[in-house]
Predict the structure.
Amino acid sequence: MRATFAPRSRRHGRTALIFLLPNFVGFVVFTAGPVLVSLGLSFTSWDLLQPPCWVGFDNFVRLLGFHLSPEGWEANDPYFWKYLGNTLFLLLGLPLNTAASLGLALMLQDNLRFRSAYRFLFYLPSVVSGVAIYYLWRWIYNPDYGLLNTALAGLGMEGPAWLSSLSWSKPALLLMGLWVSAGGQAMILYLAALSQISPELYEAAEIDGAGRWEKFRAITWPALGPVTFFILTMGMIGGLQGGFEAAYVMTGGGPFGATTTLGYQIYNLAYVHFQMGYAATLAWTLFLLVLGITLLQWRFGSRQTIA
Amino acid sequence: MNPPLTPLLVLLGLPWILTACVPQRESVREITFSLWGATEQLKAEEAIVAEFEKQHPGIRVRLMPMGARYLEKLQAMFVGQAAPDVIMIEISMYDNWASRGVLADLTEDLRKITRDHPLLPVPQRAFERNGRFFGIPINCHGHVAYVNLDAFRATGVPLPDETWTWEKLLAQSPLLSRRHGNSLALTDYALLIPQFPIFLTAEGATLFDSDSLPTRVTADQPAVHRAFDLVRRLQASGCAVPPEVQSDQGDFQLFRDGRLAVYFAGRWIVPELLGKTSFAWDVFSVPAGTAGSVTVHGGTVLSVWSKSRHPEEARAFVRFYASQDGARRSMLAGRYAPVYADLAFQPEFLSLAPPRNMRKFSETMGEGRARLPYYGPGMGQVGDILLGRAGQALVQPEIPVSEIVRGLCFDLQRWLDQPRSTYPREVP
């Protein structure tokens, strides 16, 4: 039988390969190839106009190393650590966004009047162009005549200079992120997951005298574990690479680098200062960081989810 | 049933035979010219191009206006070996590209057109590298102070004169600012704090041991401390536009709309003000600091791509555009000030009012009247470093100036220590 089917399956394999080939070639040329080239570039100094110059691990030492100065140990590139801090700070929005999405999903799964309209309204920011949203929020945050400060003034409070204050610029971006993300993909995923929970479980719990909170804690939350894990993992990956659009459109990375994230810094180094090698080094460092955190999440998070 | 071969060959060859019979047009060479600018500015460029094409029937110039991200687009074109033949370049990128060999040496072309019409000192200094030019300056005047005359008169503040200093402006600011509580003031704010290098030049500060071939950072000096201190005091007065208002509402719009008493810029904003203001305005020299009334300048050149396929045609166009005749056309368009001594002080330019004090633009190109902290590859990065530290001085008033200057020195030294393969030390 094997002898009979082998040529046919080989033929099928060849046909499959032919169909896969365009996609595969595209992947190699436009994704895998550039990724590998960028790895090579991270060991060079390259300004695009002159040939790349091999510098070994110099870029990595410059980015991640420390040196001894009269004031003590100092980072070779203190801005990298500052921007890493900004990136991690903005990640604080992830649990907030996730909680808000869950809250919205729980509200919208009930048989509310105009439920579809609410779902549409909450999901709307997710389908609007990011740039449009950022421009809108720039106006909302304007300290002179912005919506937010005008509202605060109505309450007798003086609002801060949201986007140009060192202490308020990052929270302002977090708040905007919450508005954009709460009703987005995460809410849709939670709604789908909630609809999969068997009503019998809730009925049984009610017979046992469980209240809303007990039902949520004992049934809903465990059932949503895999979805939450997925949302947090993807959010973490996206968050570590994110912040570019908001910084580019709203703050230019300022004030004094307070809203510059690693993603925005890669863009600046590569396309504003034309330091392709150093930008590639930063990109690979970011990749390793994302990989490390994701592996840790899988190692501990998935175990808890299964448990 | 073989097809007859001879008629088929004749049929195939017919187009070639017919085209051979058509008389050949005189060959026209097309060069490309990349530039930026608003619509009115482009109209002026089109007029210059039309005149050039009239005088040079064998050359056609295709304009390539590129608005946003001009530098990035050009860099990509250089990398892709598809750059325009003639390129309008702003001073911050001039050295970066000249040092990397993508701009042709135009020294001889400049000599030809300036033989009888010397350049003013500031444009000469701004673009000359080791006795050579990789672009021919077409605009290089300094920032002046745009003053809302009505706002000054309404509050009894004397108009700027030769004794005007930053300290005087600081003292006058509360009177000129409605936000500061003077209900008589016509303007919300007294001024918009200009770019930080203007304070460095006013105080006579230097950042490096050489402004074109630096080997050592010298920024930790009293003049730099004074410059940061002055910026802080202007901001702390409460009479200057807060940074967030500035970034959201644009710069010159605040002046145009009558919200600012004093604004610093070059001639390029004049067309944006003409017929659009409800108040009288004029220009004056920038206030003096310890080093006198020294300002900063911009600068634009026309360069030729070193790998242009039509270098002679491109050079001919640059010579035409940057010549006295071309400069006259540009100055009439309203944004540029001529870089030639004889043209900049001629009545033809000086009578192009408003503003009434047109001479102030020309004066900024005189010896020692305008300069930049650094001329060389990486000018944009040095500018970014200064911008960042000036921003820090404003948003973190609790940090002492000495600490800010220390940070500035660290940033500049770090920039200086970068691999020279990324930043060639000088234009070769």
About this structure: The interface with chain A takes residues 72, 75, 78-79, 96-97, 100-102, 242-245, 247-249, 380-381, 388, 391-392, 395-396, 414, 419, 421-422 of chain B (CB under 8 Å). The longest helix of chain B spans residues 5-21. Residues 144-296+372-416 of chain B form a domain with the D-Maltodextrin-Binding Protein; domain 2 fold (CATH 3.40.190.10). The mean pLDDT of chain B is 89.
